[in-house]
Specification:
This protein has 229 residues and is mostly helical. 85% of the residues lie in helices and 0% in strands. It has a domain of 69 residues. The longest helix has 27 residues. The protein starts with a helix and ends with a helix.
Length: 229
């Protein structure tokens, strides 16, 4: 009965979260975490704490999100759950990034990445490489940004993750645009557009087409300026 109660509470909480009834989801995840601790199953409390952090982040309550993530992390670190810790490090990186604390974000991402690389979690590493690329780009370190995006892309292509590859190609295209390398920008975005079209992702197709139209206009303007000179 105790196992059934815990599983049912988690399932109800997940359903409330999926239907965006956040207040109900919070109540249920808190109840789930408290129940697991009462049953001396602290390892099972880390997951609902993590979910509470994600709900708070979704509502942009970053202080609460960090509090819940750290509660989850404390358990994972103490019990040696490296996979759980890596996931929470990554989420703490996102929280710091959202608040534009890029130094803290990079610290958390690198802690997550160290574990993922050691455990051979290529899919997880690719996600963190991508985030490190965004951090570098935000700080206008374009060389580092491209390095991270390409590391992410290499894994996604090898794992046949077409959506992830398209996202990385899109970022590489926008990065090239910022540096006025319009030929490279068009090349990357054309590849991204091809993948998004094949994946039947109309919103991303539309966004990529807008980016390509903007780059074509910028390219034309630059050509005109060069001609005048």
């Amino acid at each position: 009965m105790e196992n059934d109660f815990g599983a049912l509470t988690q399932a109800l909480a997940a359903h409330a979260l999926n239907t965006r009834r956040f207040d109900r989801a919070v109540d249920l995840f808190e109840e789930s975490a408290e129940f697991e601790i009462q049953q001396d199953r602290e390892d099972r409390a880390a997951a609902p704490y993590h979910q509470l952090g994600m709900i708070a982040a979704e509502q942009r309550d970053f202080e609460a999100a960090e509090k819940w993530y750290r509660k989850s992390l404390e358990i994972n670190e103490r019990l040696g759950d490296e996979h759980g810790a890596a996931s929470t490090y990554h989420q703490l990186g996102i929280i710091a990034q959202e608040q534009r604390d890029f130094e803290a974000a990079e610290k958390w991402y690198r802690k997550s990445l160290e574990i993922k690389e050691r455990l051979g979690d290529e899919h997880g590493a690719a996600i963190t490489y991508h985030q490190l690329g965004i951090i570098a780009e935000e700080q206008r370190d374009f060389e580092a940004a491209e390095k991270w995006y390409r590391k992410s892309l290499e894994i996604k292509e090898r794992l046949d993750n077409e959506h992830g590859a398209a996202m990385s190609l899109g970022q590489l295209g926008l990065l090239a645009e910022v540096q006025e390398d319009f030929a490279q920008a068009e090349k990357c975005l054309d590849l991204a557009l091809l993948l998004f079209g094949r994946l039947n992702a109309p919103a991303m197709v539309e966004q990529t087409e807008r980016n390509l139209a903007r780059i074509a206009k910028l390219k034309e303007q630059k050509t005109g300026d060069d001609t005048e000179e």
